[in-house]
């Protein structure tokens, strides 16, 4: 049983989790509002822009296995601090080193976000075992805030910086620096080496673990497709750059509502299938509305989309914690769900770009989104059952 921590340490951990959460999306959502400008400046076509939006998501997944290994060697807290430092450096160099530097910096930033994202559910399970839903909602709220502010402010920042997109992207290293400074007191906690997973094969052979992973990956595929392409889609539908970026920002900021409400409600239910179904259907409706509804109503559909996606992401994280029997299993399930899941998620924005190149429009994107939603809903209904991975054999109901 872990020794209770003083209230001051709990408050510092809570503040640290929120500030780390703020850094989990600006590196990604700051690109799409100025994607057209980046393409013009560096000569990137739709395919190159698609790769730029896909690359960080792929690196989220590829870097995820690093997180538990680093945490076992140097501790969760130290791993997060070093990752914040590398993230800040990547955000500093990526706009100023040409096309190669842009892609490399974006890849490194995605990897850093992947490492931190894997560790947070385990920290919540460890330090707040009785408030998993609420704490997951809080740092997801911070994540949505960071994503929304970056999406809405990057284009205005570009205009403030005399039309220079490079300075607008550089600005987003600031939250990483602030988070690193606030996180420093966490290093005072003694590092207790993690035990290795007793039976990694059991986790990989669990149908429930794969359902959690598929749900996490497929809902993320939709989210990163929106982050990467929604402003461009809306611009092609007749909106200007600022309005398109602000609508993405609006869609993300309303995620705060469902990011808190969905895990709060889900954590109080016997299982989470009903909540999963509602948020996936809202996401589906919002996507189709943004693609096909009259332009005058796009703001409404952006709100519906945000309510759906805030809930799908926070439920993905909540399911990782609820389906795990202990904090060790939560950390390993988080690594599996986000590692494999984000590699799967990377296909979403890439396929959106490929379909646009092949068809010259966005109409076929709705079919792609519908397929992802349906398969994700099926996986989510399985993951939402009241079962656990890693429970003692007598209580294990995973089947």
From TrEMBL:
TM spans (from-to): 47-67, 79-96, 102-120, 132-153, 165-187, 208-230, 242-262, 274-294, 300-322, 334-355, 361-383
Major facilitator superfamily (MFS) profile domain boundaries: 205-399
InterPro entries, sorted: MFS, MFS_Cyanate_Porter, MFS_dom, MFS_trans_sf
Keywords: Membrane, Transmembrane, Transmembrane helix
Pfam families to which the protein is assigned, alphabetical: MFS_1
Protein name (record): Major facilitator superfamily transporter
Organism per entry: Salinisphaera dokdonensis CL-ES53
Lineage: Bacteria, Pseudomonadati, Pseudomonadota, Gammaproteobacteria, Salinisphaerales
